[in-house]
Design goal:
Pfam families: EVE (PF01878). The chain is α+β, with helices and mostly antiparallel strands. It contains 6 helices and 6 strands; from the N terminus they run E-H-H-E-H-E-E-E-H-H-E-H. It has a single domain, classed as ph1033 like domains (ph1033 like fold), CATH 3.10.590.10.
């Protein structure tokens, strides 16, 4: 299993919106960055990810699961753009803020710290476990 982080502006599509989609989940569409797209191309069904509120909040608020591997992004006819489907698994008991992640030396090399603009990014297993612990949430 691999681990990832998905960013979304809560005013556009937040954690509660994904939860409302239920088991069906949601196509993670609209990504127009090659590195983020390539990360989605690496994903497998069952991979887990953090759901991160960007712009406002700046915090990890929940855990998601990849439910469908890459397919053509339905929001464009351009064949260069793929996406995956994800569903909400569980919320964090305590949201983990970007500020707390940046202040913790264990995360100095984390993509979230080094490349804050990348909307879909990998997370190492060590980072995954440590952030779940900070969020008081089972991995």
């Amino acid at each position: 299993m691999a681990y990832w982080l998905f960013k979304s502006e809560p005013e556009v599509f937040g954690w509660d919106d994904l939860v409302a989609k239920g088991e069906k989940g949601e196509e993670w569409d609209g990504i127009r960055n090659y590195q983020a797209r390539n990360n989605m191309r690496e994903m497998k069904v069952g991979d887990r990810g953090f759901f991160y509120h960007s712009r406002s909040g700046l915090e990890i608020v929940g855990i998601v699961e990849v439910t469908a591997e890459r397919s053509q992004d339905s929001t464009t006819d351009d064949p260069r753009w793929d996406c995956v489907d994800i569903k909400a698994v569980r919320p964090f008991k305590v949201p983990v803020t970007l500020e707390s992640i940046k202040a913790d030396g264990r995360f100095d090399d984390m993509a979230l710290v080094k490349n804050t603009r990348l909307s879909v990014q990998p997370v190492t297993e060590t980072e995954w476990k440590a952030i779940c612990a900070l969020g008081q949430t089972d991995p």
